[in-house]
Amino acid sequence: MSNVPPAPSSGARTAEAPAVGVVMGSDSDWPVMEAAAQALDEFEVSYEVDVVSAHRMPREMIAYGEQAAGRGLKAIIAGAGGAAHLPGMLASVTTLPVIGVPVPLKYLDGMDSLLSIVQMPAGVPVATVSVGGARNAGLLAVRMLAAFDPELAERMGHFQEDLNHQATEKGRRLRT
Ligand code: RP5
């Protein structure tokens, strides 16, 4: 896995603005966060990728959140580790749904990241996935878009059927 996020807007490309913003506090988060991008790629959902640090780039971070909806984004996936304030701060300056990914760092097994992201005050929601759960963040963004896109919803349905078949097959193999 590369430690460097690809250039912004590197996901499934369309002529339109990307649908999902995938941002993180540092390029060191990319080995975890790229699973979100991969999930979006699987569903051909367009996205952009960038580093927007809440602590090291506060003004840029606020601008990103304030401009996100106007640029056409429909959801933001934000990952950060440690004192992980990025998802919550973005949620405070945008009306878009924000999905937070707690990135595990060297110490505390990601509990610091998880608690920083999940314990939001009432009125400022962040949909927090599991520690390191960037793939589910990508899939949740797909589901959000699928609520307004029947074709995407159908593909999500097929994806879930595949999961069912795989799990069923595992049980069948164990029983025989
Ligand atoms: C957080 O600090 C980032 O999201 C990253 O998880 C962590 C460490 O960043 P680097 O020191 O690796 O740039 O803000």
From TrEMBL:
User: Top EC class per UniProt?
Assistant: isomerase
Q: What does this protein do?
A: Catalyzes the conversion of N5-carboxyaminoimidazole ribonucleotide (N5-CAIR) to 4-carboxy-5-aminoimidazole ribonucleotide (CAIR).
**Keyword RNA-binding, does the record have it?**
no
This enzyme catalyses:
5-carboxyamino-1-(5-phospho-D-ribosyl)imidazole + H(+) = 5-amino-1-(5-phospho-D-ribosyl)imidazole-4-carboxylate
**Entry protein name:** N5-carboxyaminoimidazole ribonucleotide mutase
Which UniProt keywords are given for this protein, alphabetically ordered? Isomerase, Purine biosynthesis
Report the family membership: Belongs to the AIR carboxylase family. Class I subfamily.
Gene Ontology BP terms: 'de novo' IMP biosynthetic process
* Top-rank taxon, per record: Bacteria
Pathway of action: Purine metabolism; IMP biosynthesis via de novo pathway; 5-amino-1-(5-phospho-D-ribosyl)imidazole-4-carboxylate from 5-amino-1-(5-phospho-D-ribosyl)imidazole (N5-CAIR route): step 2/2
> One MF term from GO for this chain?
5-(carboxyamino)imidazole ribonucleotide mutase activity
Does the keyword section mention DNA damage?
no
Q: Which InterPro entries match?
A: PurE_ClassI, PurE_dom, PurE_prokaryotes
Domain PurE residue range list: 18-167
